[in-house]
Amino acid sequence: MKSTPHIAPKGEFAKVVLMPGDPLRAKLVAETLFKDAVLINEVRGILAYTGTTESGKKMSVMASGMGIPSIGIYATELYDHFGVETIIRIGTAGAYQKGIALKDLIFAMSSSTDSNFLASYNLNGTYSACCDYQVLEEAIKAAKAMGIPYHVGNVFSSDVFYDHDPNTWKKWAGLNVLGVDMESYALYAIAAEKRKRALSVLTVSNSFLYADELTAEERQTSLLDMIKVAIKAGEAFSD
User: Fold this and answer.
1) Are 129 and 111 contacting, i.e. CB atoms less than 8 angstroms apart?
2) 226 contacts 143 by C-beta, under 8 angstroms
């Protein structure tokens, strides 16, 4: 079976891959929401599993690690070498806007960034990274059916977690950016280049306007609404 520098699978990937940042969240998905899940990758501690959903659809889940460089590696290798057609990121975000509550979902319709990720493409402008509309539509349908609060719009994918300027976020919020993550921009750009599908489904873990935030344990274990929405959306593109 073929492998890459970062993925050495012991089994096949499905056409649809759910992609949390945290390897333990990938394990949680496989053990609680997949049937007959098999561990197929553990290179560098990046766990990947393939199983079937409750509806009998084949699906994989694989961690991406944190940040644009890390998800850039795994998304590229999955799309190029393992027959993956759709990646749905299942992550967390910090909210920038009023009216977005803790544990609400954000569907990233597009992503802005402070990253230099696209520099290698030598573009003569600024690339706007967008999700796949069909996957977004399926996710919205799933959230509505489940009665889960959600928001759709632009997110900011930052290269910096601890910004030395505590007010940087306000400039993005002023342009109605909904919140911040660290991965969506690279995923969307790579998917566009490869003519593949991608969507980020994000649970609000904290707000820049309020003091509330999820604990580290809650980030790992209490995101089932998001995962169920992502699975339902992914089933529309699964075998």
Assistant:
1) yes
2) no
State how far the alpha carbon of 226 is from the alpha carbons of 175, 185, 197, in Å: 26, 19, 18
Q: What is the DSSP letter of 46?
A: -
The pLDDT of residue 220 is 60
Give start and end residues of each alpha helix (H) in 39-146: 68-81, 133-146
Residue pair 63/174 in contact (Cβ under 8 Å)? The answer is no
Over residues 216-229, the pLDDT tens digits come to 777 666 689 999 99
Task: Dump pLDDT digits (tens) for 113-154.
Answer: 999 999 999 999 999 999 999 999 999 999 999 999 999 999
Q: Which residue has the tokens 């609400």?
A: 104
Q: What count of other Cβ atoms lies within 10 Å of the Cβ of residue 195?
A: 8
- Sequence-ordered list of residues with C-beta below 8 angstroms from that of 159, at least 6 positions apart, any chain: 67, 68, 113, 114, 115, 116, 182
Q: Is 87 exposed, middle or buried (0-12, 13-18, 19+ CB in 10 A)?
A: buried
pTM of the model as a whole = 0.96
**Residue 141: how many CB atoms within 10 A of its CB?**
14
At 192-208, the pLDDT tens digits run 999 999 999 999 999 99
In the numeric block, the tokens 């959230």 are attached to 143
Q: What single DSSP character describes residue 162?
A: S
CA distance 199 to 133: 8
- Tokens read off for 57: 């659809």
Residue with tokens 């632009």, as numbered in its chain: 154
